[in-house]
Specification:
The chain is mostly beta strands. It has no helices and 13 strands. The protein has a 6-stranded mixed beta sheet, with no helix packed on it. The chain has a 3-stranded parallel beta sheet with strand order 6-8-10, with no helix packed on it.
Length: 174
C-alpha cells in the first residue's frame, strides 16, 4: 500500500489513466489542469469525470463514509471507478443507469448502494461488496459475469427473459 501519495495532479496532456492506477493509495483529491480534454475534477476534487461530464471515472481511494452524487449529468459509473475502496459504507447515485465492469468491486464495507433505473450491469460490478439487497433489474436484460459474487445477498428474484451470466450470484455467503 502506498500511503505517501495523497493527491494527484493531472496535466492537460494526459489522455489516458490505466485501470486501477491509484488503487490502494492514500489519494483523497485530484487536480486536473485547465485544457485537459479527457478528464474533469469536481469541485470537492474527490472524483474524476469524463470531459463530457457523463461518466464517473474514478473516486479517490480514501474517500470514506457515504458518497452521494447529485450531478444529474452523470449516468455511467466507469470501469473500476470505486474499486477497492475499503472506507465507503454507502453509495448514492440516483441518476446512474450504466455500471461498467468492476464498478464497485472489492468495496467490502459498502452495504448500501442506491442507483437509478439500470440498463446495464457489467462483469464483477458488485463483486465482494457488503450489499444485502439487489438493485432493481427492471430495464436490465443481461447481468455480467460474477456481478454479485461474494456479496451478502440472501434472496434473488430474476425477471422473466433476463440472461444471467456465469457465476453471477456465486459464493453469496453471510
Amino acid at each position: 500500500s502506498s500511503t505517501q501519495i495523497k493527491s494527484v495532479t493531472i496535466p492537460a496532456s494526459v489522455t489516458s489513466i490505466g485501470e486501477f492506477a491509484f488503487g490502494d493509495t492514500a489519494v483523497t483529491a485530484f487536480d486536473v489542469a485547465e485544457g485537459n480534454t479527457t478528464y474533469k475534477a469536481q469541485t470537492d476534487k474527490s472524483y474524476l469525470v469524463s470531459a463530457d461530464g457523463k461518466t464517473l471515472l474514478l473516486v479517490a481511494p480514501r474517500v470514506s463514509g457515504e458518497f452521494k452524487l447529485t450531478d444529474k449529468n452523470i449516468t455511467t459509473v466507469g470501469r473500476g471507478a470505486f474499486s477497492s475502496n475499503g472506507r465507503l459504507t454507502s453509495i448514492i447515485l440516483p441518476n446512474v443507469t450504466v455500471l461498467e465492469d468492476y464498478a464497485f468491486a472489492y468495496c467490502d464495507r459498502v452495504e448500501k448502494i442506491e442507483l437509478g433505473k439500470l440498463t446495464h450491469i457489467g462483469e464483477y460490478a458488485f463483486f465482494k461488496t457488503g450489499i444485502k439487497t439487489l438493485p432493481s433489474f427492471e430495464g436490465v436484460s443481461e447481468i455480467g459475469k460474477y456481478a454479485f459474487s461474494f456479496t451478502k445477498l440472501t434472496s434473488v428474484s430474476i425477471p422473466k427473459g433476463m440472461t444471467v451470466a456465469e457465476g453471477v450470484f456465486s459464493e453469496c455467503l453471510d
